[in-house]
Amino acid sequence: MLIRRITVAASLAALVAAVPLTALAAVAAQDAPGESNLGFLLAGTVLAWAGFFAYAFYVGRKNRELRRDIEDLQRILAERDKGTALDP
Predict the structure, then answer these.
(1) Is 58 a member of any domain?
(2) Residue 3, pLDDT above cutoff 70
(3) What is the C-alpha separation between 73 and 79, in angstroms, rounded?
(4) Which spans in the chain are helix H?
């Protein structure tokens, strides 16, 4: 499980690192002073959104895992209470 998490984290980090590089490669060199660097703005925006969605995915997965754990604990406690209620 730990190896899978590390692999997923490394893949996301590589993807997030590659996005600005592709945006910068598409930007032409500035011909005149004062031109805007919209490529950097695009790269930063894409990077921020990629980070947001990666974090939202991570939190969603953790939420599902916690819900499953809570349901398992509730089931175990219900079975334990049911078993002790039957024993005089």
Answers:
(1) yes
(2) no
(3) 10
(4) 2-25, 38-86
pLDDT number for residue 33: 67
By C-alpha distance, which of 7, 12, 2 is closest to 51? Answer: 12
Q: Total domain count for the chain?
A: 1
Domain that holds residue 72: 53-88
CB atoms near residue 39 (< 10 Å):
16
Say how far apart CA 66 and CA 60 lie, in whole Å: 10
Q: Model confidence over 44-73: pLDDT tens digits?
A: 999 999 999 999 999 999 999 999 999 999
Residue 83 lies in a domain: yes
Length of the chain, in residues: 88
CA pair distance 64, 42, nearest whole angstrom: 33
pTM (2 d.p.): 0.52
